[in-house]
Amino acid sequence: MKPFSPPARVLLGPGPSECAPEVLAALTRPTLGHLDPQFLALMDEVRAGLRTALRTQNELCFPVSGTGTAGMETVLVNLLEPGDAALIGVAGYFGARLAEIARRAGAKVTEVPGEWGRALAPEALRRAAGGKRFALVAVVHGETSTGVCTELAPMRALADELGALLVADCVTTLGGARLEVDAWGLDGVYSGTQKCLAAPCGLAPVTLSARALEKLAARKTPVQSWYLDMALVKAYWGEQRAYHHTAPIQNIYALHEALRLLHEEGLEARWKRHETHARALWAGLAALGLECLVPEAERLFPLTAVRVPAAVDELAVRRFLLERYSLEIGGGLGALKGKIWRIGLMGAGSKRANVELVLSALRAALAAQGWKAAGDPLPAVHAAYA
Amino acid sequence: MKPFSPPARVLLGPGPSECAPEVLAALTRPTLGHLDPQFLALMDEVRAGLRTALRTQNELCFPVSGTGTAGMETVLVNLLEPGDAALIGVAGYFGARLAEIARRAGAKVTEVPGEWGRALAPEALRRAAGGKRFALVAVVHGETSTGVCTELAPMRALADELGALLVADCVTTLGGARLEVDAWGLDGVYSGTQKCLAAPCGLAPVTLSARALEKLAARKTPVQSWYLDMALVKAYWGEQRAYHHTAPIQNIYALHEALRLLHEEGLEARWKRHETHARALWAGLAALGLECLVPEAERLFPLTAVRVPAAVDELAVRRFLLERYSLEIGGGLGALKGKIWRIGLMGAGSKRANVELVLSALRAALAAQGWKAAGDPLPAVHAAYA
User: CA–CA separation, A33 vs B11, rounded Å?
Assistant: First the structure.
């Protein structure tokens, strides 16, 4: 085995995004034990920093020791008991994943299918509920597979009508788009660190409301996952400091530093930055003659889905970008495989230089396939920034 | 929030251990996408390196995206179906955890209690089995809570008699004590990265035998955890490269580097190093007049449990070491809380300087409590190294 020397990539796919250099440096700080008093103090800062980032006062707010999908599984297996009815919006790959994990938790799942590339309307969920009671309603805030942002605030009234807890997948939105856990009445939220937080992958911020904790306390069956059992994990992150598993120390250093940078920039400023660069990208794509999958009002700022033009080889374009520019963008998932590209402008990667680079590179890649651009994208981009 | 500046600690507890400096540096390599061709090639090197470290030819051999406990849960929830009978040796905290996780997987668990501080005898498991058939037998190789090493090779015949798969917890032994997955006939093995591999916490190497994969393929029920479902995760780590979840790229860089260092040193040499420093520590402890919990023949090399002498305040000693020496050792867990210290000499931390430092520091801490040492430990240690 030889030491690995990865090439420097411009990471403009659906994540991982580029880590901020300060965050990478934080990974190398000296390891502390997971019960060291100084590490315990750091954990408290991470919890406080996450609460601010999630706009919540929830007591339970900390990173789970796994990736975003572990966060999804954590929220579902803790808040669902076998036989519970769950109403789940499925308008993309990650909605489908929610439904699958809920089924494996023993829930009776009612899937509410939505068009891939459109936001879910509360009315569609209401119709599917058919007046029945549900233990849980789950939707994806930023659907990473389609680039859609579904409004969460209107889901609260629906969840109240059904007597349900409201769960939201915020993997792609935390730190990159407005997210108001308390104001929107979200009961269970999870995210990941490798997207708009610009930290390495490996942790899943999770928060549960007081209402969700009541459900947890009233469970009649043990949580099927011991590793993700919030009643046990919160005893470590909370005042008891009871050993549960060895925390990923280095990743928590990195998350702490990422949160520090987030709050230094300011949460609203961070959201605005993601919006500004997304809008500039959209202007450039339109000028090139490329079409976004999602109507503008429903688009996610951190991630844009672009339709692959007819007669263009989707994979060949991504290969061209990787080989000629060392630039990564994403392809489609599931039903959208081969049909879209996904361009992420997330965290440290959400910046003007990347917008202009990806447009310039896409233009070259498409020209190499004989596709004729409608026009020069850069004047439109420059105008968007003006 | 301010940047966090942890103090440099000498980590001689039950883990995390000190990361090798090359491994910490590897964490900061440029992030690649989880489907980048260069990252996929790295994954193959990690699988090969782990196979060598585990002495196995198993096709399924890769790190799960979580800590050692996630590895434990992975092996159990994949190899057990609801109603399966599991025979589990419980002679420590981690044996008890195995039993609890197996119960949450729906298994009918027969616990075989053993003395905390002694190895489990196959005969005790055989008696408890009472001639019945079992789907799975699970034991802990290196019981981190007691410092005991249980021989695994004799468990194979027992598992065969019962028609069972054989699972072993190797969190504390991988890279620090002889471990022969294929020669010993182990079907499911998991470990962690933050002990004898000297890498950051956050990944759990897992391997499953062909027999275990047959059981997986013949399951009648889905694995309750989608995140840890090996049939899905192996499609990403294997030839299909099917996206499942975003791999923790930086942690995998670190594991790759840790495996590179392991193979550069040589596996047998690494085991021998852990043995040499453990034996020197034991000689010093005996000279001081401190007693080990475990009979010498059953002791784990990477981790030594030391009885707290009568009238000594266990916690005050650990505080003294942390405050005066910035040195961490562990306390006892569960039934051994307050009764033992746990001294880890793991990975990069398994070295002569640490042996002499911890003995010298312990001597000072005990003297501060008015405890009289039997004698000077250092001549015994020097003799052990001679």
Answer: 7
Q: Where are the beta strands (DSSP E) in chain A?
A: 10-11, 60-64, 85-90, 108-113, 136-140, 142-143, 148-149, 165-169, 188-190, 204-208, 303-307, 327-328, 330-331, 340-344
What is the end-to-end Cα distance of chain A in Å, rounded? 51
Closest C-alpha to B65, from A205, A69, A224, A202: A202
Please indicate if any CB of chain A lies within 8 Å of the CB of B41.
Answer: no
CB environment B241-258: b (16+ within 10 A), e (fewer): eebbbbbbbbbbbbbbbb
Instruction: Flag whether pLDDT at A239 surpasses 90.
Output: no
pLDDT at B309: 98
First to last CA, chain B: 51
**Quick check: helix, strand or coil at residue A214?**
helix
CA distance B218 to B67: 27
pTM of the full predicted structure? 0.98
Shortest Cα–Cα distance, A282 to chain B (Å): 23
For B53-107, the pLDDT digits (tens) are: 999 999 999 999 999 999 999 999 999 999 999 999 999 999 999 999 999 999 9
CATH topology of domain B21-264: Aspartate Aminotransferase; domain 2 (3.40.640)
Q: Which of B69, B194, B200 sits opposite A227 (nearest CB)?
A: B69
CA-based angle A159:A164:A170, to the nearest 5? 70
A186/A173 Cα distance (integer angstroms): 14
ipTM passes above 0.95 = yes
For residue A59, the 8-state DSSP code is S
Question: Distance of CA B383 to CAs A359, B302, B386, Å?
Answer: 69, 20, 5
Tokens of A14: 């659906």
Q: Give dist(CA A351, CA A95) in Å, integer.
A: 29
CA–CA dist A123, A110 (Å, integer) = 15
Q: Amino acid identity, residue B67?
A: T
What CATH class does B267-385 carry?
Answer: alpha beta
> Which structure tokens are listed for A178?
């407005």
Instruction: Name the amino acid, one letter, at B336.
Output: L
Return the residue of A nearest to B201 by Cα.
Answer: A248
Which residues 130-189 in chain B show a CB within 8 A of chain A?
none
Report residue B305 as tokens.
């449990």
Residue-wise burial string across B193-226, b where 16 or more C-beta atoms lie within 10 A, e elsewhere: bbbbbbbbbbbbbbbbbeebbebbeeeeeebbbb
Stretch A44-66: mean pLDDT: 98
Q: Domains of chain A: which residue ranges?
A: 21-264, 267-385
Asked if the peptide bond before residue B222 counts as cis, ω within 30 degrees of 0, the response is no
